[in-house]
Amino acid sequence: DPKIIQKPKYLVAVTGSEKILICEQYLGHNAMYWYRQSAKKPLEFMFSYSYQKLMDNQTASSRFQPQSSKKNHLDLQITALKPDDSATYFCASSRRDRGEQYFGPGTRLTVL
Amino acid sequence: GDSVTQTEGPVTLSEGTSLTVNCSYETKQYPTLFWYVQYPGEGPQLLFKVPKANEKGSSRGFEATYNKEATSFHLQKASVQESDSAVYYCALSDGPGTGSNRLTFGKGTKFSLIP
Q: Residues of A with CB below 8 A from B99's CB?
């Protein structure tokens, strides 16, 4: 069974719309993260959460908002979508006291 | 900020030959170092964590030694096979514990076998 679930796997949106990317982990970890991967940039850190609290935010735009409703969930809400937001978004998790992060399969977002 | 520089790909080799992917880093902190592998359509998979300076980390026939003086941790495999074809990323973390555990990745090195 997959330990980190990301939904949907593919997502197509129109410019200006809003989407939510879902992430759930069943590894018993207490820290979760979002990363972005595009053709232009390598894997890029966006956010880290621990015990449902924000630890670090490297995303300049407030259009990207993580949401943690449960300790094993960290969704990513993206508003006012732009074509430049097109990328694959990966969720990851770890134990807070261990550096090893485990990644989900990703959500590939295309903004038209 | 932190940065990681690795061998620019693509790298193509014959089966059974050795693979080396160079990786060096810059950081003001004492880093935790990792190698990840990514197959098409999948998320990055942790290959292994590189232990403390001058110690060797290894998994699936791959190994890397952290050279603190040279700020490098090159990935090596003695004899490559078809299943090794993938993109390899080196990464460093500012954690655990003290930082946010943020991973900074290199640009990735795509490796494939010569058909």
A: 56
Angstrom distance (rounded) from CA B39 to CA A105: 10
Note the pLDDT of residue B104.
Answer: 94
Nearest to B38 by CA among B106, B114, B93, B100: B106
Tell me the residue length of chain A: 112
Query: With contact defined as beta carbons under 8 Å apart, do A33 and A91 qualify?
Result: yes
Q: Do A96 and B96 touch (CB under 8 A)?
A: yes
The tens digit of pLDDT for each residue in A42-90 reads 899 999 998 889 988 988 799 999 999 898 999 999 999 999 999 999 9
Interface test with B, best of A29, A36, A93, A101 (most B CBs within 10 A): A101
Between CA A4 and CA A83 the distance in angstroms is 27
Closest CA to A102 of A41, A42, A24, A38: A24
Whose tokens are 């292994």? That residue is B48
